[in-house]
Each structure stands twice: as structure tokens, then as C-alpha cells.
Design brief:
The structure is a homotetramer of 280-residue chains. Chain A is an alpha/beta fold and 280 residues long. Helices cover 34% and strands 30% of the residues of chain A.
Chain lengths: 280, 280, 280, 280
């Protein structure tokens, strides 16, 4: 993976945006590795990946020079530097399949992120996390308000970019959700919007569906209703018990979360109302 | 496809059912082509396919001889004869992709059924149905009560075994649903239980799901809530419009309906509460 | 579907191509509906969909004005006008599932193409094609050389853009393949490169694979070895006979061919050596 | 998971086998949890799962009493006791995604096996295996003959039931393959029979396929040609590099191997010529 900058933009749609942005990049010799566009409801979304070594200046200077153009088009925009890993603070309860999967992808550098700490309301996973050399922090949930204050404080202290609920079986308070829009990612163990809330595999079993699924989404203050980043399904049949569903579900949860997180850390996910644009 | 009988059974679970049934069949030299079992909530489900030419008697005599054994185990049971095609009465509105698909499978004998008539609340598809030599009957829906009475009468008159709602955009009255339990099959254009009712693709678009689906289910008096026979999903992305969803949906609707109907006409679907056992 | 132009380009990769093309379009007020890029082995591939009504001139004038820029970058390029349907000449033998599927998509305008004629080495499908009002032409294959000369002549006479082998069970002579590079599309009933040549389902059955597939590809003078446009697979199991494989295969063949053709007629497929770039 | 016995049988097909076996089980009060049958080329395959506590005797006595019936039908048969875990000896090189996945499933008891040791031709994975408390044995491959003798000796010493090649990048000598028919399982990183041998992702990239796959199969003395247990595929596109293929491949390899092994350890896989019957 070469050093590159990723420019993400959303702005009111009009003629000439691509020309202006591509013109700006070309004028400085910038080599575009990947470019994606999308228009929805009169709003334009754009992602450009530019090789860092093709530009005569660094990210800071890029931003200074790009700002006037951004202003002209009323852009919401960001420039991400691939040399700066995103910092994921992972929250987990007892189910560790997603955590295990993320730590594997982290330690093999498949997922280029930093994991400054893992937070849990149980002690079970301390040894496994510690083997990776990552701080493991237990938070007592008996006083929920205090617990979530502590979680927010830890997220700040460890300079987290994104909070990942990797099967964290606690509902975040609305204020916390609102504080970090687009920065808290959950994996829900159903194909949303079916089976919101508790025990989705049990609900799926009782309804007799023929496939089950998992959903990776941004957390908002409405339970399991935030913008969906990634989903997938797997076939089951009448012979499968709830335990079988849970087992199939583990595999699909971890792959959906891993894909969703990968899109997010590569700055491929732009929020558009209560939906996402995912530039793959 | 050789001539065979299909014996389907459900009864309270206990030791010795398979032995008793297999023993009965073996005692008469019956050659079992396929056998499936399932237990759920203390109830036992069973399907046996037996080569007709391996038995020394016909279906009627099989039933007479099997009855005492069935009584002993308190069985609900049926013997289907592959020489007797199931008769499907198809109801359709204007969207003809499912109808087109079913007629193709019928005329190429992939789906071994009779289609005594096609009923529609529009005239649009008359010519295509007529080309197949199948009666096309238009029913005026302005008086709904009269229309559904006529539909029920036509179903009886044409000796229908199963009523297939192949994108029939009318809600059947509860009394009609209750009159034919397990005999009315619908294709719903969403992955149920998500997006019940009208305009499911529009609902899916607004929710921003990353896959859409279709559901083949038995019709009960609760809308889109009957036992599910078959489902499937297909991936979409942010670039797809509602029209794209409708287009992808057509392909998945017709394949899900075709598979569900195939299971049904091969006597592979047994109802178990509000769920189905599908012996594939 | 609005009236639009699709500009497809391939050229040596260098800095500034996107800027130059987007700049040209913006300079004339062109509204870009969709844009895609790809670089492979120092070659750049590009597709732009532009709303026709946003430009002050027609397709001919676009081409005249664009030519100098295209020359400067040594582009292979084409401008397709959505108002001009591609003309598909379909060749078929006896298996009609792909033909049936294509004619359905054609008559419902899902696939925006013209089908000037259907050519077959059998008479079986005359009535069905005739019902659609499309000329059906029987070609006698006893003298193969003469037959293929006649096919090429018919393709010219009916001004075909693309020849579609929709389960045409004859191997085209190399000279014919070479005459129409990138213009003959075949559906092969296996997941290539497995099971080249005859009876792929039989080969798959004997090898004991757990999924079967289908491949839509451009025809070259090497059998089943041309650039692949689209593929898919479906799960089978040990209980499936060769006949079952053929049955599952029909569904996957027709959907793979339909998707591949759709990409092709929308000018989404660019050939790159023996591979394809498919801008979806 | 209750204590159960799994009876697997293959024998010449004839009338009365199911009745005889089910009759034997019923006669002793045996409660059948799951039963599957298959006929192929005049050979009958059968699997029965029986609750251990429903029988009045243990596995040894079951075998003694069943033997005469088995002889009468010329059965190949085995009775597996769920209380006896299968012992998997895992061989691995440097790529550890499959090993990581298997150890996770082992330590969470999702996969009910014993792993008496892990053998590798590299030292890289010692620490991770040691954390699990499993012996890690390095085998020097410079003298291949000696190395494979040592591997066979270790397999015996650790009383392995099955040798799992979890991305072991060495070709086993034919004599070793022949010594353990149906007991060596490999994961190959392509959708066989495509891309046999080295660098399958590279081969797939060059061929331009639109999906890649993985294959779990029994090892025989012909490279990558043994009976296939499980396969799967995943979609790629022109934008994916060989490195992307390798990355997607890791996920599919580990899930295909995990599923294949699960079928194997649950005695669901019966070899039938160069194919497998997999009773799911």
C-alpha cells in the first residue's frame, strides 16, 4: 500500500465539480489512484485517492490550497492521510468472535488501524487481549451513567477516532450517541430492519425465516436504526436450532463487521441522511 | 422422473416411527428413493419417496393398508402420486415476470403441474397466456366481495389444488385465506418480516439496506405473515435507484417463487405452526 | 432513463487525463451522471455517462470537438448515444431458456436493445420467436462452411452490432471469431476455466464439485478462452443428478447472460488484453 | 449437544436396508435424532444419529449386536461416539489465517475436537500456538524424505485421527497420501478443478475470472485431485489486485475449511469413488 491521501467531499450538485477537483489535482501533478462519485437528492458525493509522492506538498499544504475551491462549491470535505492510522476503541462483552477476528486482522496488518485499548464490562477476555499487548480496561456497569461517562472519558483519553461495538451487549445512552455522530459503529446480529433489539436469532427462529443476516451500522440515538454500512445473509433451514443460528451468525457477524470497518477506515463511507454511500 | 409415491407424515414424536414406516414399506418390497425426517417441539415430520413399480399395489391399496399404522401413531398423512399433477390456478395483475417464468417452466415440463387457468384483474396478459393455450379469465375488482367470490368459484370449478398469487396486487379477504389453509402461495417482494405491505422496494430504498430480497409464503389471514417457504436476497448499493431495486427484485422474485412452488408441488413442504419444514 | 451519451476511453496512463476529460465536459456544461476509472498495466480505462440535454450540441459535434483531446492522449474512444439501441442478433439451438429470458427482457423494455432476427440450426423455436414479431431464420448446418458464411451474411444484412450465442451448440470457425472481436458473446454452462468444451455439467458431476456455474464471455478463436464478462455459481450437493445440475444451470446461465449483455449494451465492458474491465 | 452415537454405513443398494437398520435401532428403544440416505451407482449410503441415553447398552455392545446385520447387507460401517473427540493434527507453514480460525473454534468449543499438536516447517507461529497450550513442533524440510517420515511418526505418536493441511505449503509424498486415505484434509486456495497447483490467485487474476473460490478436499496421491468436501466462491472485480484476491481468499479459505472439517468430525462425509457424500 503506497502512501496516499484520500479526499472525501459532499456538496450541492452542479455542473463542473469533477472538473474543478480533478483540475486542481492535475495542476499539481497529482496522480489519482481511485475516484468515485455519487449523486443523491441534489447532493454530490466524491472520493479521490491520490498518491502522496505525486504531489509537491504535504497534506497540510494540500488543505490550505484546496480550501478556496471547497468554499466556492460549499463542500463538506476531509483529507485523510494513509500514514495516519485510524484509532479504533473496541467495546466488547463476553462474545468474542468479532474481537478475535478484528485482532487477527490488526496483528497481520490486513486492517491498518491502531487499537489503543479494548473496553469490556466483563473480565473474560483480558488474557487474550493482553497477549496482543493491548490495554484491556474493565468498566463496571452497575452504575450505568457512571460507566458510560467513563467510557466516553476513555475514548477521549485514548484519542479514539471510532468506537466499535463488537458485540457490546449494552445500549448506549442517547447523549453519547449524539456526541459522536458517524463515529460509533455497531454490529447487529440480524438483517435489519428485521429483528431489532434483543435476541434476534431467537426472533428469526420463531418467525421461520430461511436466511439470517447481520448488519454493520452507525449508532444513532434510535436503537438499531442508524445508517447501514454493510449487511449480509446466510441460508439456514428448518433443521437448524437457535444454537445453530447463533453459530452461523458468528461467522457472518464478524465478516460483515470487518468489511464495514474496512470501508470506514479507508474513508469509503459517507453519510447521506439516514443512509450511507459506500465507495467500493 | 419415474413414477413414484410420496408419503408425507406428521405425528407426535416417539421411538419407532421410522422403523414402523420403513418396515411397512420394506415388507411390500417398496424401494425408497428419498427419505427425510425432522423433529420439532415433540412433533415428528417425515417424507418418503417410493418407486411405484416396486410395490405390488396401487396408491389406493397403499392407503388402505397403511391406515391402521397411521392411526396407531396418530399421524396426519398423505400419499401423493407423481402421475397426478398438482393443479395451479395462477392469479396475476400487470407485473408478469413471475407468470412468464412459471409458464416457461410449465411448457418445458421443468415444473410438472397443470395450469387449468390464469385469473387477472387486468386484460394486459391475455394474449401471452392465450398463446400457451391456457384459459385467461378477467375478474373485475370494482366489487371486491363479488370478485373474490368469483375467484373462489373459479378455483373450485377448475379444481385447483393450489392458488398462486404471482404478483397479484390485491389483498385476499380473511375468509378466503382461512378457507384454503396451506393452499394459497404468495410471492412478496421483500425479505420478510422486513417491509410488510405496499411498496417494499421503496421502503427498502428509504431504509438504505444493502441487500433486498423476496419471500414465498403461504397466505394466512394476517397480511404477509404466513409460514415462509423460501427466501433469497441480492446485493444492491447506494448507486441503485428504486427502479434498479424493482429490476433486481423481478429476478429474485421469480426464482424464489419457482423454487418455493417446486418444493410445494413435490410435497416437500410441511406446515409446522407458523413455520415450514422444507425437505430438500 | 434519460437521453445520455456514454464516452468510453482507454489510453496510456499519465497525470491529467481525468482533469482534461472532465474539463472538456464541464466547459460545455455537460452534466456527468456516472463516471468510472481503472488503471491496469500502465493503461487507463474510463467511462463517463453525460446527460444529452446538458450539452449544447449533438453526438456528432461532441465527437468532432473531442477528437483533438483524444489524439493528444492517444485514446481509443467511443461515444455511444442512448437513443441508438444496440442491435443483437441471437443464435440459438434447441435449449431455449436463455432466448426466452432475453425476449422477455426485450419485450418489457428492461433490456433496451433491438433484436433484428433470431438465427437457429433447428426449427423448434420458430413459433415462439414469431409470436414476438421477430424474424426467425433457420440455417442448415450440414455444410458448416456455407452455414457460417450465411450467418455472417445475415449478421451484416441485419446490421447486427453484437452476435449473442444463447446456447448455440456449434463451434464458430476461427475466421468468424476474428472478424468480430469484442462483438460475439457466448454463455458457457460452466464456471470457466473449469470444464471447457462439451457436456460441462456431466464433467462437473463426475468431478464432484459442490458448486456449478456459468460464464458469459467474448468469443475468440480459442474455445471458451475469451475475455470473461460475468460469472456466477450456485450450490449443489451429492443428491443432485446430472439432470438436476442442468436444471439449476438453466437459471444461472440465463441470469449470467442477461447481466453480461446488460453491461455490454450499456457500454460498461472494456476489453483489456484477455480480460475485461466492467464498470458497474 | 447431547451424548449420541453416529452410525455411518455404505453397502450395495437393495430393498429393506432402512427398515432393517431402523428396526434394529427401534427394537432397542434407540431414539434417532437425525437420519440421512443417499444412493449412487447401486451403492447405498446412510447416516444415523442416535441418542446414547436411549439405548440400553454402550457403543461396544451396539457394535457387537449390529455386526450380524451389517454382514448380511455387506456393509462398510462405523459407529462414532460423540464423547470421543476426533484428534486433529494440524500442519501449517507461515500463512496462519486457517490455523487462527481453527484454534478459535477449538478454544470456544464450537468445533468439538482435540488438537494434540501443531506441526510447522517454520517457527513463526510458535508463540500463538503456545498461548493455547498446544505443543508446537517444528520440522525441518531440508531433507524432505526425513521430514515426511517425522511427520508421519508424529501423527502416530500423537494418535491423530485426521491430518489437516491448514495452508501447509509442501506437497505430501504419494506414499504418505496412500497411507491415510480419507484422513488427510487440505484447503486449496482455488475453486477446483480450476487453478491446480501453485499460485492459484495469480492464475485467477491472469485469467480474469469474476469470482474466486476455495476447496476443502481429501488428499490423494494426485495433486489437488482428491474428493471434494466443500467449496465456496466470492465475487471480485477488475479493480482487485492479486493482493486483494489473496485477502478475500483468506476469508473464504478459512470458512470453507472450517465447514468441511465440521462435516468430517461429525461423521457427515462418506467417500464415494472420487466424490463425497456430505449429509448436512
Amino acid at each position: 500500500m503506497n502512501h496516499h491521501y484520500t479526499l472525501t467531499i459532499s456538496c450541492p450538485d452542479r455542473v463542473g465539480i469533477i472538473a474543478a477537483v480533478a483540475g486542481f489535482i492535475a495542476q499539481h501533478g497529482g496522480f489519482i489512484v481511485e475516484a468515485n462519485y455519487h449523486t443523491e437528492q441534489d447532493r454530490f458525493f466524491m472520493r479521490q485517492e491520490i498518491r502522496a509522492d505525486s504531489l509537491p506538498f504535504d497534506a497540510g499544504e494540500f488543505c490550505r490550497r484546496f480550501a478556496p475551491l471547497a468554499d466556492k462549491f460549499a463542500m463538506n470535505w476531509q483529507l485523510a492521510d494513509s500514514a495516519q492510522n485510524k484509532r479504533l476503541v473496541i467495546l466488547v462483552s463476553r462474545q468474542d468472535h468479532c474481537l478475535d477476528d478484528l485482532l487477527y486482522r490488526w496483528r497481520t496488518k490486513e486492517l491498518r488501524v491502531d487499537i489503543p485499548c479494548v473496553i469490556s464490562n466483563h473480565e473474560d477476555l483480558r488474557s487474550f487481549v493482553a497477549w496482543h499487548g493491548i490495554p484491556f480496561i474493565h468498566v463496571d456497569m452497575r452504575d450505568k451513567a457512571a460507566a458510560f461517562e467513563r467510557i466516553a472519558a476513555l475514548f477521549e483519553q485514548y484519542r479514539g477516532d471510532t468506537m466499535v461495538l463488537a458485540r457490546f451487549m449494552q445500549i448506549l445512552p442517547p447523549a453519547l450517541c449524539q456526541r459522536y455522530p458517524g463515529r460509533i459503529i455497531n454490529i447487529h446480529h440480524s438483517f435489519l430492519p428485521s429483528f431489532v433489539g434483543a435476541k434476534p436469532y431467537h426472533q428469526a427462529y420463531l418467525r421461520g425465516v430461511k436466511l439470517i443476516g447481520a448488519t454493520c451500522h452507525f449508532v444513532t440515538d434510535e436503537l438499531d436504526a442508524g445508517p447501514i454500512i454493510e449487511q449480509d445473509t446466510v441460508r439456514i433451514d428448518h433443521g437448524d436450532t437457535v444454537d445453530d443460528l447463533v453459530r452461523y451468525g458468528r461467522d457472518i457477524e464478524k465478516s460483515v463487521l470487518a468489511r464495514g470497518l474496512r470501508y470506514h477506515v479507508e474513508n469509503r463511507v459517507l453519510v447521506c441522511g439516514n443512509k450511507t454511500v459506500v465507495f467500493k
